[in-house]
Design goal:
The complex is a heterodimer of chains A (451) and B (338). With 451 residues, chain A is α/β, with parallel strands linked by helices. Helix content of chain A is 37%, strand content 13%. The chains are: A alpha/beta (451), B alpha/beta (338).
Chain lengths: 451, 338
C-alpha cells in the first residue's frame, strides 16, 4: 500500500459538467484525497472570446469543493483544447512539466474526465499514463456507443462511468466494451447543487410561465448551416406561438458564438409576441427553477430530459427528424442523443391536448440497443441478437426514421433490402436508370417551380 | 490623447465579426481607439458594426459607399487615425485578451519605429504557430539590414500588416499607406517600403493574433481574377526598389520573391477558372519581360530546378502584346496571345 498522497484532477468544460461533479462529490462518489484540482477547459470554437466557466454566475458555489482551479487553455496556450494532444514520445517530458507546473510532486494522480474519446480529455489521459480514470457523462451521450475504438491503454484504466439518471432505468452503453461499471449520480444531490446555482445566479429578468426555447449550436459541428440553424430557432418560436404561448424566452447555446442575425426578433415582431433573448450565460436548469416555464422547447438538448425527468416540466422537440436524416455517417455520435430525444419528447407540432412521445423510459431500451449496435457493430458485436430481435418486431413506418435502409443492408439486419434484390445497389444498369429518373424528376420540379 | 489606433476593415464577415469585436473589447483601454471600416458589406456586418460603435469603448465606425478592397479600407482608417501608435487587424481574425496593451508597452520600451510579431493560424480547432522569419528578438535593428539575403526567407517575406505595431511618425512620413485598389498582396509593397524607409524595428514573439484560415469567402481560397493583383503589387515592389539607393543589392531579392510567387501560382494553376488561368500565364510572362533581365537570370539560376524550369518555360512563350500597360487594365487578351 503506497503512502504517497493522492491528487484528484477533475476536468470540466461546462457549468453543467462541473455541477455534475459537485453533485458526485457531495454524494461521496469519490474516495478521499489530499488534494482536489478542478481543471477547466474552454472548448468553445473561439475560447479567447468566450466566457470561461469560472466567470459564470453560480460557479462560486461549486468552487469550494476543490482546492485549486486550473486552466487547461492557459496550460496549452496558444493551442485549442479540441485540437491538441501530446506526441507519444513527448509524454514523459510533459508529465514532468505538469507535475512541476501544478505542484503535484510525486502524488498518485487520479483523473476524472468527460468525453474520454476526444481531446482534451484524451490528451490529459495520455499525459498521465499511470493514472486511473473515472469518466463522468454530463449528457445523453452516455447512452450511446463509444464513438471509436479506444486505445486499450486508456480504456483499461477506466474504472467507472458516472452519469445522471436522465432516462430512469436505462443503462448506459458507453464504455461497456471495457466492462466499465456505470454508476448514477444521485438525482437529489444533483438537483440540490442546481438549486444552489439558481440561488446564486443573481437577478434574472425573465417572465414567469413563459415558453423557454433552448438554442442549439449545430453549425459548429457542421450538421446544419448557420442559416438553417437560425431557421430552426425561428421554427421553435412559431411552434410555441401556435401552441398558444405569447411570452417567449430564448436561451442561446452556451458555446455558440455571438449572434449576428436578427431573424428571431423580426419573427417575434411579425407574430406580435414578447421575446426575451438571454445574453448572459445561465444554465437552463436555473431557468427551470426561476421561471417555471410553461413549456420547454429544444432540438436535442440534454436539458429537455432534465426538464422532464428532474423538474416535471412539459417539453417539446423540433428538428430532430431533419437531424436523424442529416446526421452522417450513421455512426455520428450525436445520433443517440437525437434518437432518445426524438423518441421520448413529444413533437412541437403535436396539437393534441396531451402530446405524447413515441416511447417511454421503460420501453426505449430495445430501440437504444438496436441503434447503438447499428452505429458501432464492431465495438459491440454481442448486441447483435438484441438488435435483430428489436428490428424484426418493431420496425414499422414510424421507427424507420431511426435507421437507414442502407446501414441495415450493410450489416445484413432485418429491414435491409431483401437478399434477392441485394444486387441492386451495386448494379450499373440499375444505377444508371435511377440516376436518369432522378434527373427527370429534378427537371420536372424545376419546371413546376418556374412555371 | 489617443495612444493607439487600431484599424479593422470588415467586408461581409457577419459570422466572424462578433468574435473580432469581442476580442477588441478584451483589449480596450481609455486611450485606445478602434477604427472599424465597413467596406460596403452586403450582409449583416453593418448592423453588427453599428452596435459595436455604441457598445465597444473607443470604437469609431467609418463607412465606404463603394467596396474598395482591403488596401483602400486600411487607408481610410489611416486617414482618421489619431493615435501615437498604429495597429491593424482583419475583420475575421481575433486577439488574445490584453494583447495590445502588452505589445504597446513592448514597443514603447524598445522605442523603435515598428515591431513585428509572431502569430497563430487557425483552421477550425487545429492551430499552428507562425513566426517572423528572423531570429534576433527584442533588440532594435535597422530594418534595411534584415531584407537580405535573397535566397532565404526574411522579415519582408512575412508581410502580414496585422502582425505588428507602428509608430505614428511612419504614418506622417507616408510609409504606412497602402496602394489604393489592390485586392490581394497589398502588404507586399507595403512591407518592402516599411523596411526600406523606416529607421528602426524589432521582432518580438507574443502570439496574440489569431489568423483564421480556411474561410470559404477568404480570398486566398478562391482562384478568381482578384488574385492577379499580385502582379501589380510586385510591379510596385520592383519599381520602388529599383529607385532605392541600394537597388543593386535589394533588387535580386525582390525579383526572386516575385518569381517564387509566380511559380507558386503556376504550380497550383488548376485553382483558377480557365480564363483567369490564361490571363495569369500571359501577365506573368509579361511581368518577367519587364524585370531587369540580368537580375532575373541570376534569380532563376539560383532557384531549384522545378521552379526555375516552370518559369523558364513561361518566359519562352511567344507573346506579341506584352507592352500593354497593366495599370489601365489593358492586359493582353487570351485570343491575341493564342
Amino acid at each position: 500500500m503506497s503512502t504517497r498522497p493522492r491528487t484528484q484532477i477533475f476536468m470540466a468544460s461546462t457549468l453543467y459538467g462541473a455541477a455534475t461533479l459537485a453533485a458526485a462529490l457531495d454524494a461521496d462518489c469519490f474516495a478521499p484525497a489530499e488534494r482536489r484540482l478542478l481543471l477547466l477547459s474552454n472548448n468553445a470554437t473561439t475560447p479567447e472570446t468566450t466566457a470561461s466557466l469560472d466567470t459564470m454566475p453560480g460557479f462560486a458555489q461549486l468552487r469550494g469543493r476543490f482546492d485549486r482551479v486550473l486552466s487547461w487553455n492557459e496550460t496549452i496556450s496558444p493551442f485549442h483544447p479540441g485540437g491538441w494532444s501530446p506526441r507519444a514520445d513527448d509524454v514523459p517530458l510533459w508529465e514532468r512539466h505538469l507535475r512541476l507546473l501544478w505542484g503535484l510532486g510525486d502524488d498518485r494522480v487520479e483523473l476524472v474526465v468527460e468525453s474520454i474519446q476526444v481531446n482534451p480529455a484524451l490528451a490529459l489521459a495520455q499525459l498521465f499514463p499511470d493514472a486511473p480514470i473515472d469518466v463522468y457523462a454530463d449528457g445523453l451521450m452516455s447512452y450511446g456507443p463509444t464513438r471509436n475504438k479506444l486505445d486499450p491503454l486508456i480504456g483499461t484504466r477506466i474504472s467507472r462511468l458516472l452519469h445522471l439518471d436522465l432516462v430512469p432505468g436505462l443503462t448506459p452503453l458507453l464504455l461497456t466494451e471495457f466492462d466499465v461499471a456505470p454508476q448514477t449520480v444521485p438525482t437529489d444531490a444533483f438537483t440540490k447543487v442546481l438549486a444552489e446555482l439558481s440561488d446564486a445566479s443573481g437577478s434574472l429578468e425573465v417572465p414567469d410561465g413563459a415558453a423557454l426555447l433552448l438554442g442549439q449550436y449545430l453549425s459548429a459541428l457542421g450538421i446544419l448551416t448557420p442559416e438553417e440553424e437560425e431557421e430552426l430557432h425561428v421554427r421553435m418560436v412559431r411552434g410555441a406561438v401556435e401552441r398558444g404561448h405569447r411570452e417567449i424566452v430564448f436561451k442561446p447555446h452556451p458555446s455558440a458564438p455571438a449572434r449576428w442575425s436578427r431573424l428571431l426578433e423580426r419573427e417575434a415582431e411579425k407574430l406580435d409576441i414578447s421575446l426575451t433573448v438571454l445574453d448572459s450565460p445561465v444554465l437552463a436548469e436555473v431557468l427551470y427553477q426561476r421561471m417555471r416555464p410553461a413549456l420547454v422547447v429544444g432540438c436535442f438538448s440534454t436539458a429537455l430530459l432534465t426538464a422532464a425527468t428532474f423538474y416535471g416540466l412539459p417539453t417539446a422537440r423540433t428538428g430532430t427528424g431533419l437531424l436523424l436524416e442529416r446526421l452522417s455517417p450513421y455512426q455520428n455520435s450525436n445520433r443517440m442523443p437525437v434518437t432518445i430525444v426524438d423518441a421520448l419528447v413529444p413533437d412541437l407540432g403535436d396539437r393534441s391536448e396531451h402530446p405524447r412521445a413515441y416511447a417511454t423510459a421503460e420501453s426505449i431500451e430495445g430501440l437504444v440497443t438496436a441503434v447503438g449496435y447499428a452505429m458501432q457493430h464492431q465495438i459491440y458485436p454481442q448486441l447483435r441478437p438484441s438488435a435483430e430481435r428489436y428490428l424484426a418486431t418493431h420496425l414499422d413506418t414510424f421507427t424507420r426514421r431511426y435507421f437507414k435502409r442502407r446501414r441495415l443492408t450493410a450489416l445484413a439486419l432485418p429491414g435491409a433490402i431483401p437478399s434477392q434484390l441485394s444486387f441492386i445497389p451495386r448494379n450499373a444498369t440499375v444505377r444508371r436508370v435511377a440516376r436518369r429518373a432522378r434527373a427527370v424528376q429534378r427537371r420536372l420540379k424545376k419546371r413546376a417551380a418556374f412555371g | 490623447m489617443v495612444k493607439l489606433s487600431v484599424i479593422v476593415p470588415f467586408y461581409n464577415v457577419q459570422t466572424y465579426a462578433p468574435d473580432t469585436l469581442k476580442s477588441l473589447a478584451a483589449n480596450a483601454r481609455e486611450d485606445f481607439e478602434f477604427l472599424l471600416v465597413d467596406d460596403c458589406s452586403r450582409d449583416e456586418t453593418p448592423e453588427i458594426l453599428a452596435r459595436a460603435e455604441r457598445e465597444l469603448p473607443g470604437a469609431r465606425l467609418l463607412r465606404h459607399e463603394q467596396n474598395g478592397g482591403l488596401a483602400t479600407a486600411r487607408n481610410t482608417g489611416l486617414d482618421e487615425a489619431r493615435g501615437e501608435y498604429i495597429a491593424f487587424l482583419d475583420g475575421d481574425d481575433w486577439l488574445a485578451p490584453g494583447y495590445y496593451p502588452e505589445l504597446l508597452s513592448t514597443i514603447e520600451e524598445l522605442g523603435c519605429d515598428f515591431v513585428r510579431t509572431d502569430h497563430v493560424q487557425c483552421t477550425a480547432r487545429a492551430r499552428t504557430v507562425h513566426r517572423v522569419p528572423h531570429g534576433r528578438r527584442g533588440v532594435v535593428m535597422d530594418p534595411r539590414e534584415v531584407i537580405l539575403p535573397a535566397d532565404r526567407s526574411t522579415s519582408v517575406d512575412y508581410a502580414y500588416a496585422w502582425a505588428g505595431m507602428y509608430h505614428r511618425r511612419l504614418l506622417d512620413d507616408g510609409v504606412l499607406h497602402f496602394k489604393d485598389g489592390l485586392r490581394t498582396a497589398e502588404d507586399r509593397p507595403w512591407i518592402w517600403r516599411l523596411h526600406r524607409e523606416a529607421k528602426s524595428m524589432a521582432v518580438v514573439g507574443l502570439l496574440g493574433v489569431f489568423y483564421r484560415r480556411g474561410v470559404a469567402s477568404s480570398l486566398t481560397q478562391i482562384g478568381d481574377v482578384r488574385q492577379l493583383d499580385f502582379i501589380r503589387a510586385f510591379d510596385q515592389v520592383i519599381e520602388e526598389t529599383a529607385q532605392d539607393r541600394d537597388a543593386d543589392l535589394l533588387l535580386p531579392k525582390a525579383v526572386r520573391t516575385y518569381c517564387a510567387i509566380i511559380s507558386h501560382h503556376l504550380g497550383s494553376i488548376e485553382r483558377f477558372e480557365p480564363q483567369v488561368a490564361r490571363k495569369l500565364r500571359t501577365m506573368s510572362a509579361a511581368a518577367m519581360k519587364r524585370m531587369p533581365q540580368d537580375v532575373l537570370k541570376e534569380a532563376l539560376d539560383s532557384m531549384d530546378v522545378q521552379r526555375a524550369s516552370r518559369l523558364r518555360r513561361l518566359r519562352r512563350r511567344p507573346s506579341p502584346t506584352l507592352s500593354a500597360p497593366l495599370e489601365q487594365g489593358g492586359t493582353p487578351t487570351a485570343e491575341v496571345v493564342a
